[in-house]
Amino acid sequence: MEVGETKCSSGYGNPPWTFKGSALYQLHLVKAETARAVIPKELRLVEAFGYTLGGFFLASYEDSPAGAFDELVVIAGIVWNPPTSCAWAARVLVNSDEACDHGRKVEYVGLPSQVARFTKRITAVQGQPKRKSSSFLNMIGLGTTTTCTPKGFMDLQVSENKGCVATDICNIKLATIGPTPKFDQRMGLAIKMSLPSFSGHSEYIPNLLKYSCHIECRVRAVEPAKVSGPSFAPKEDTGNLHQTANSATEELIDNERNLSISVLLSKPIIALEFNCLKMQVEAPIVVANCSKSSLKIS
Questions:
Q1: Neighbouring-strand partners of residue 72
Q2: Is the whole-model pTM more than 0.70?
């Protein structure tokens, strides 16, 4: 099965913005030097023994202000924001033009959003027990509506679009879930939580912003997804400083993309499946007035 780009839908309107669907939240050990390359210098990285906590948030929204779409948020690391901490998104990939525009600049969200293509293929493994499932694959429309589902895996290829050119970012292999307990326990524990995050410091929104995501869902630990990168090896240097302005811009974009790939390829430590997800995103507030040129990128 292949799923191409999702069409845009209605406008976002006033905050808070509500998103419903399912997601996989996978935490990785990310090298501190990699995270620092994309986090503003005035933010203090939460780290230990040379590593911070990053990873990715892979979501499939069935209902949102932009309609149905897929999203991959690459989380570079955690930064200290007394009395708590916040995540920093290195890249946000969505297969919706409207969601991308909103993330970049509408209502001053300030996310590093890019339009991408999510291509999904599911493969069954023969000879495994069958069951009725409410797993992440079924929630995103890749399971089966019959009374039994073969155990297998789903390959998700994510490619970033720039005009007519598509650049491969990663391939994520998601295992289907094995037998689950009866009744609602198979969906996981019902929880409510708030995930504070920073945004901004971009070409569209130079100010540093902070926003909160209020989440209600059922969560359970699952087998971490296996992530593989594109055929080229990510580079983490910024190149020749004496290039032309256009070349330097392209090099910076490539470097930021490669740093995001490095985060995705870092060591996973835990994966959480969010079912029956309802997420409310508050309007960001300005934390600091600044310009991207005044902040250290590498």
A1: 58, 93
A2: yes
- Name every residue whose Cβ is closer than 8 Å to that of residue 192 and which is 6 or more positions away in sequence: 214, 215, 216
pLDDT in tens, 78-127: 998 777 789 999 999 999 999 999 999 765 688 999 999 999 998 877 65
SS3 21: strand
The DSSP-derived string for 105-157 is TGGG----EEEEEEEEEEEE-TT---B---SHHHHTT-S-SSS-B--EEEEEE
Classify residue 161 by burial, with Cβ atoms within 10 Å: 0-12, 13-18, 19+: middle
Contact 91, 54 (CB under 8 A): no
Residue 70 CA to residue 58 CA, distance in Å, equals: 8
Q: Report helix, strand or coil for 101.
A: helix
Instruction: Count CB-CB contacts under 10 A for residue 79.
Output: 21
Q: Are 109 and 92 in contact (CB under 8 A)?
A: no
Distance linking the first and last C-alpha atoms of the chain: 40
